[in-house]
Design brief:
alpha+beta; 30% helix
Amino acid sequence: MKYVSLLLIVFSLAFTWRLAHHSDPIPVKLHHELQTAVTDVIKSAVTQQLPDATNFHFSKMYTQTINENAVQTFFGYTFNEKGESEETERNITGTALLTRDPADQTKWVLEDIRVDQSAIEFQEGTIIKPGEEGQPL
């Protein structure tokens, strides 16, 4: 039993040593640069589509390595938008997939952006009266 315990302890030490000294195929600095680039792309796209959007804020932005040539980005952001009658706050969360460009290994290609959840919060509620023309029952 002593030998089994000793082997278990040695195996645990070797495993944790490898885990602690394992290098990530994509450095942390590159993760930060990719997060910044995705943030800029999303903000630019929103401001082009909705020029009156204000108070743009990212509440969540992080990346996860899939392999040495692919990274998945998770994001969440909010902004205010002036509607026809009132101002609304839009909350959007989603993911983006980035892959390394095979022709130029220093460049990354934004392959896919998916919106997982989109919500609109009204600053003031709209009053509706059931039964009036143009109003749902």
